Predict the structure.
Amino acid sequence: MHIEPTGKSLTIRWRFEGKKYHKTLTKHNNPIGRKNAESVMASIEKDILSGHFDPTLYTKRGKDKKKNINITASELFAKYAVHRMNERELSHNSQVRFKSIASRLTQFLGEKPAGKVTADIAANVITAWLEYASKPTIRAYLFDLTAAWDWAQKEDLYILSDISPWNNSLARLKRVKLPAPKKPKPFTIKELKAIAQGFRNHPKHSYYTDAAIFIAHTACRFGEMADLRWLNVGANFDTVLLEISVSRGHHRDLTKSGPSRTVIATKTVVEMLRSRHEQIDPKPDDLVFPAPKGGYMNDNRFRGKIWIPVLESIGIDYKKPYNLRHSGISHAANQGASLAELAAQTGHSKRVLMNTYLHAIEQRCVFVDF
């Protein structure tokens, strides 16, 4: 017999004469409610030991409960996500991750019942999934999938195989050898100028011009730009303190690289920030680059609704918006910035800068003519 939390309630679960029972105490998931639940549990134990237990007073589970045999894999995972939300609120990033997993299960498995997902089928799903996500990302997804199937087994609501089909996928994933990922190619200076002009001239999306220019000139992340406030801009507009990041327009957190960092602004950024400040006369806590209707810009919406149309309008092949940051770092390195300076102002280690961002952007002769 044990007590487990279920959202704002507490549920007492026990087994008697081979059958499972439970009693839910609504809105008792608090210190006082737990004391009450312990008292109720002691009373039930006393009835069982004294032979006065009346099973009709409680809800039976187990063999007497009809199991859902047709629930699909994506539906099972969606129900698990709801359970997790009731258990304790998931972070915004976790909600996005769970939604992505359910969507991929629908894509790869369709209407296949969860109980018919075998280890071999799960392995085929992982193989297909590798075309869309990296091994570390899928590894994190597999932990969620395993937890979902384990939860379903524990609840005994669905007809599933005795062993989660995802258990062996982690071991198989380690043995999968993928080709080394290609380094993203930075935009050239000519392309960056064309992108800035493309934003300025776009009939719908010129509002985002300053945000795009800021990312390319400071090599910051989209989330860091979206949460930048005027109190973190230097008095002369020549420095910017990046310390908070926003994801999907909602979740606020520390920057991805951890500690805050100060970026020394280029002349273009200084002039742009000064001009924006003079036009709107903002309060210190106001966002520097708010969404058109206020609040945070959403990186997902920016990519699909703004970024892609602007690139198409100027005839530049698609690269992710992150390539603005990548290009800013690569051009700084090619202009002779030291690794120490770049590491301090981009939030990357020297090793990552060497392995990822140092490119020969435009081919030229580098040898000594003697």
About this structure: Confidence is low (pLDDT under 50) at residues 61-66. Residues 135-155 form the longest helix (21 residues). The chain has three domains: 2-64, 73-175, 190-321. The CA atoms of residues 184 and 319 lie 8 Å apart.
